[in-house]
Write a structure and sequence with these properties.
Elements (H helix, E strand, L loop, with lengths): L1 H11 L15 E11 L5 E8 L14 E8 L2 H7 L7 E3 L5 E5 H6 L2 H9 L8 E5 L3 H4 L10 H12 L8 E2 H8 L7 E11 L8 H6 L7 E13 L2 E6 L1 H10 L7 E7 L4 E19 L4 E18 L6 H30 L6 H8 L1 H7 L3 H6 L3 E11 L13
Parallel strand pairs: 1-4, 1-5, 5-6, 6-8, 13-14
Antiparallel strand pairs: 1-2, 2-3, 6-7, 8-9, 9-10, 11-12, 12-13
Helix pairs in contact: 4-7, 9-10, 11-12
């Protein structure tokens, strides 16, 4: 009996798995950010930020934990493979979060990037896409100010972009849907960049500050603000932060809230209103073979956050006046986005075509081949209905004499 049991155990051990071909954590590089550019020869250039894990027993105090790698190739995938020329570890993109495209590459075309991100299973659909003025490789070398790495700092900035509604992030899934549309009429990608500042963005001991060798030079500060317009898989223009917010309002993409500041010279006061619960609707009141009109309706709720100056009477009449003033300001921001689309870029990145082809399929079949020209001639009316639901903790206002 014992012999049979021993023979059975020996036989079963043949089918047991082992760790002979396993990869240790210290053998891989976890790519968290990938940038795409064109090099001077017209080849595709890829830059990556890779987190380099180390074992717990090793001394990590003076060891770099993030590797910046770059390589060029005839195609984007070829460039990715060529990273192995200088990488000491096997790179994996399973945890990549940010895709950054340089301006020159975006103007040449991003269809190859879209195809790579869609076909390669290592890139998740949740990756966030941005276009940057200049080169992606330059942006990815900006040092972090507060966080331990640029990647962590950018994630925090991206998360905060929804709180002021002047920044925007598009993911790979949305990029693929826009790029694969039968009749592409443009779409918006977020803008990521950096500016230089002579002010130190963090606080330290004065004695430590005196030791900083770069304290008298300007330092780059990363930001996410505005947007980039893509038409036929190419960058055709940029959106300012205000134009982007008008686009987000019209497209029902306001994640949280945004603020409107207004100075009223007669009688003379300043006010800031926080706008929430924004709902917009696009309709086409009149459609014929010769003429199309569009109407934008917006409903929103406002909260007074600041109010000071010369105010005649803090009553319902005054509140109604504020509602009208702020509503006009919201309408003007939407108008800026529409004007940018119709007259400057002449591409329907606002999505008018999506609404029109659903509600008027027969007319769409006639107009779809020349929709951008039709879209640029559509007169648009704006109706913003703003209700101030809360006036803050104060029932009065501060009076200033120097107005």
């Amino acid at each position: 009996m014992k012999k049979c049991l021993i023979i059975l155990l020996c036989f079963s051990s043949i089918f047991l798995c082992s760790c002979w071909d396993a990869r240790e954590l210290s053998d891989i590089g976890i790519v968290v950010m990938t940038g795409f550019d064109l090099d001077h020869d017209g080849n595709q250039r890829v830059t990556v930020l890779s987190v380099q894990p180390f074992g717990q027993t090793q001394n990590q105090e003076n060891v770099a934990t993030t590797w910046i790698g770059t390589a060029a190739g005839k195609s984007t995938f070829d460039a990715l493979r060529n990273l192995r020329r200088t990488s000491t570890r096997s790179l994996t993109w399973m945890h990549n979060k940010i895709i950054l495209i340089g301006e020159e590459k975006a103007r040449q075309g991003i269809s190859d990037i879209t195809d790579l991100l869609t076909r390669n299973s290592e890139f998740r659909y949740g990756n966030l896409i941005f276009v940057t003025p200049g080169e992606a490789s330059e942006m990815m070398q900006v040092p972090a100010n507060l966080e331990k790495s640029l990647f962590r700092e950018l994630l925090g900035i991206i998360e905060g972009a929804g709180e002021w509604s002047k920044g925007f992030a598009l993911n790979v899934k949305e990029l693929s849907l826009n790029s694969l549309a039968s009749y592409q009429n443009g779409f918006v990608i977020g803008n990521m960049g950096f500016y230089y500042s002579s002010k130190t963005p963090f606080t330290i001991d004065f004695q430590e500050y005196l030791k900083l060798y770069w304290k008298d030079t300007e330092q780059p500060i990363a930001y996410v603000s505005g947007g980039a317009v893509i038409d036929k898989d190419r960058l055709v223009g940029w959106l300012s932060p205000i134009e982007l917010r008008g686009y987000l309002i019209l497209s029902n993409k306001i994640e949280q809230s945004f603020s409107i500041y207004k100075e009223i010279t007669d009688p003379g006061f300043k006010i800031t209103v926080d706008i929430t619960n924004v709902e917009s609707k696009l309709e086409f009141p009149y459609v014929s073979d010769d003429n199309i009109t569009a109407a934008v309706t917006v409903k929103a709720t406002g909260f007074i956050t600041e109010l000071y100056g010369e105010i005649p009477a803090y009553d319902e009449t005054f509140i109604k006046k504020i509602e009208d003033i702020v509503a006009q300001e919201i309408a003007s921001e939407i108008y800026l986005a529409v004007n940018r689309a119709q007259n400057d870029l002449r591409t329907d990145f606002l999505g008018f075509h999506k609404v029109f082809k659903v509600r008027y399929p027969k007319q769409w079949e006639k107009l779809k081949e020349n929709w951008c020209e039709v879209f640029s001639r559509i007169p648009v009316s704006y109706n913003v209905n703003l209700k101030i639901r809360h006036r803050g903790l104060m029932g009065k206002y501060f009076h200033t004499e120097d107005w």
